[in-house]
Amino acid sequence: MKPALCVAVASMIFGVQLAHATCPNDAVFLTLGDQIRGYSLRANGATEPCQVLQGPLTTLMTAGAMVFDKNDSFHVAQFLSNSTVDIFPQNAEGNQAPSRSFMLTMTNDLLSIAVDSHLNDFVMTVRPSEAGVLVARANSSGPLPNPIRIADPNINQYVSVAIDKDDNLLIAGYDIRGAVIIDTLGTSRSITSPPLLRSLTGSKTGLLPGGVGFARNDMTIAVDPRTDELFVYNATTDLTQIQVSVFAANANGDAPPVRTISGPATGITGPSLQGDKIAISADGRLLVAEPNLHILAFAPGARGNVAPSQVIADSTAGPATQGGIAVRSAEGGQHDENECARKRTKGGEWTKAWTN
């Protein structure tokens, strides 16, 4: 890392003075309509963002669901304002244009997004006439009037998508009665006609039923990048029950969760208006987006009515609305704040800090 990046700098972004350095490899990001903000995964308490992407060149208006690909590029789906998915490089900041964009011209109801290891984008649309998952092949750009569409006959209302370590697509939604279904389709075998590999549904799952309606987002799924465990944020329509259930890798049928995080001590509240509610870091921490620029972090293995191990609270002015969340973290562990902060052992090797 260049020495200049080890020194905090200040930038003026549309009248908001933010002192920051380049975000470390391990960081969590919020989408907030016309902007994206990033924070170190080591942060706890009041903190300034270490990366802010905002301005007319970004084309961000209603940035919602976001995910990082294997190259750490941002893939950002805009909800309702247009039909665009924007891709930004890892170090994108300030008033920077996307490196490429593609447009799903038949719909603008883009609620969730996932990217596989081949850099194919899987974008969920909830518009009734086109509901399903639209696939944009790697390096797509410009208008895509006829993308591949994956429809799941078991699901009446689509809500969230994720990709597992084997490049298979998980689709979460509700059946016609409002019961939760999470299907895994074999997109590692075929994108155009993926077979059904697993279907998680039933009373033993403990997943909360929801009312069937247009553009619901009271459920988010995320896969642990290391263990392939499935995390499900789930809330009832009236928000009287809210939980995060964790299922074993490849859970199938009417399988119970291995643990559930729920209760007043957690501080977890209702779903975001747009974008995903939860994300999982490479060391197994659960990250939860909350209003007023707050992020709750739960240690690996957390269960029950437990308080978060970290609360990241943006100390600068910004939107109070709750946005989507995505995490960028190195496989195998949490890096130090930046490479300048690494320490040598007596044997001369670099060490890495883990934060739970």
From TrEMBL:
- Compositionally biased region (Basic and acidic residues): 333-349
Q: Which InterPro entries does the entry mention?
A: 6-blade_b-propeller_TolB-like
Q: Which SUPFAM superfamilies does this UniProt record tie to the protein?
A: Calcium-dependent phosphotriesterase
Q: Which residues form the signal peptide?
A: 1-21
Q: Does the keyword Chaperone apply?
A: no
Q: Which UniProt keywords apply?
A: Signal
Region described as Disordered: spans on this chain: 328-356
Gene3D superfamilies from the UniProt entry = TolB, C-terminal domain (2.120.10.30)
What's this protein's name?
NHL repeat protein
